[in-house]
UniProtKB/TrEMBL annotation:
Substrate binds at residues 72, 90, 95. Keywords: Isomerase. It catalyses: alpha-D-glucose 6-phosphate = beta-D-glucose 6-phosphate. Gene3D superfamilies: 2.70.98.10. This is glucose-6-phosphate 1-epimerase.
Length: 311
C-alpha cells in the first residue's frame, strides 16, 4: 500500500537495528523511498539515500569499523574541538562516544518535525570526558529526513556547568562525488580562508569557484549560509544550507595523503569531498545555562538549476 505525504506515519518510518559494533542505529525513511541511517556510535549519519536508492554520502571501502574509532565517511560530529586547534584528540571526542536516544527532547520549532521522520539523540559529559574537558554539557542532535529527501541536522549544546566554556564544532559531511576533478564549489569565492596546509595562514580566495587539482584543506571564514557543490558528471548539485555556523571547511586529501591513511581505499579520494558547516575560527562561548543551536541541511537538485537560483 502506498502512502501519500498526508497520511505518512512518521512513527512507522523509523527502524532501529544494530551497527557493526552491536550499537543501535536508526533508519529514517520518507514516503518516497529516501532514507538516512544514523548510528548511535558518534551520532554519525552513516548513509543518506535518495528515492532511487542512490547513496549520497561517501563511505570508504576500507573504513575501520571498530569502536571507539569514528568510521571514515558519512557525517561525523566534530565537538568540542574541530581539527587539531586545541588540546583534545583530532575533531574532539563526540564522534567516538555512544550517544543515547533522547525520548523527551526540549521542543523545537514545529517546522523541524512536521512532514519529517526524525530521531533525537543526546550526549552528556561523562566522568571520562570531564577529565580531558572539564565542562559539563548536554548536546542534543536531531537528524531529520524531509518528504522531499532533504537531510537536516540540528545541534543544540547547553552549558550545564558552573562556568562559561568555549568550543569549536563541525558537521564533517563526506559527500559522494563522481570525480573530484570535475567538481566545483560555488558560494565561497572572494572569501578569506585559513589554509591548514600552510600553518593555518590566512589567504583570500581568488578563483570564481573552488575546483580541485591537488590536496585541499581549508576553512572559509564568514561563509554565506548557502553553498552549492556542482558535480558535472553526475549532473547533480548538493546544496549545503547552514545556520549558526559561520565557517565552511573543505577537505580532500588527494592521492599521496589518502594512500598514507589506512582507512582509505585506492584512489577513493576521487569520490569524496568533505564540506562542513562549522564554527572554527571564533569558538562558541556559552555562559552557564546558555544554549547554542547550529543547523545544516543537505539537499540535492539536478544540475540544470543554476547556482544563481540557489545562492
Ligand atoms: O582523519 P580525521 O581525523 O577524520 O580528519 C580528516 C580531516 O578532516 C579535515 O576536516 C581536516 O581539516 C583535515 O586536516 C583532516 O585530515
Amino acid at each position: 500500500m502506498g502512502h501519500s505525504a498526508a497520511v505518512w506515519d512518521c512513527r512507522t518510518a523509523i527502524e532501529i537495528t544494530k551497527d557493526w559494533n552491536g550499537i543501535d542505529q536508526v533508519m529514517l525513511r520518507n514516503p518516497h523511498g529516501a532514507s538516512a541511517k544514523v548510528s548511535l556510535h558518534g551520532a554519525q549519519v552513516v548513509s543518506w539515500r535518495n528515492e532511487h536508492g542512490e547513496e549520497l554520502l561517501f563511505t570508504s571501502s576500507k573504513a575501520i569499523l571498530k569502536h571507539p574509532k569514528a568510521m571514515r565517511g558519512g557525517i561525523p560530529i566534530c565537538f568540542p574541538q574541530f581539527g587539531n586547534c586545541g588540546s583534545l584528540e583530532q575533531h574532539g571526542f563526540a564522534r567516538n562516544k555512544v550517544w543515547t536516544i533522547d525520548e523527551c527532547p526540549p521542543a523545537l520549532h514545529p517546522n523541524d518535525s512536521h512532514g519529517k521522520s526524525f530521531i533525537d539523540l543526546v550526549l552528556k559529559s561523562s566522568d571520562e570526558d570531564l577529565k580531558c574537558w572539564p565542562h559539563s554539557f548536554e548536546f542534543r542532535l536531531r537528524v531529520a529526513l524531509s518528504s522531499h529527501g532533504e537531510l537536516l541536522l540540528i545541534s543544540r549544546v547547553r552549558n550545564v556547568n558552573g562556568k562559561p566554556f568555549s568550543f569549536s564544532f563541525g558537521y564533517h559531511a563526506h559527500l559522494s562525488v563522481s570525480d573530484i576533478s570535475e567538481v566545483r564549489i560555488e558560494g565561497l569565492e572572494t572569501l578569506d580562508y585559513l589554509d591548514n596546509l600552510s600553518r593555518k595562514e590566512r589567504y583570500t580566495e581568488q578563483g570564481d569557484a573552488i575546483t580541485f587539482e591537488s590536496e585541499l584543506d581549508r576553512v572559509y571564514l564568514g561563509a554565506p549560509n548557502v553553498v552549492a557543490v556542482l558535480d558535472h558528471e553526475r549532473k547533480r548539485t548538493y546544496v549545503v544550507r547552514k545556520e549558526g555556523l559561520p565557517d565552511i571547511a573543505v577537505w580532500n586529501p588527494w592521492e599521496k595523503k589518502s594512500k598514507a591513511m589506512a582507512d582509505f581505499g585506492d584512489d577513493e579520494y576521487k569520490q569524496m569531498l568533505c564540506v562542513d558547516g562549522a564554527a572554527i575560527e571564533k569558538p562558541i562561548t556559552l555562559k552557564p545555562g546558555e544554549e547554542w543551536t547550529g543547523r545544516m541541511e543537505l539537499s540535492v537538485v539536478p544540475s540544470s538549476f543554476c547556482s544563481e537560483q540557489l545562492l
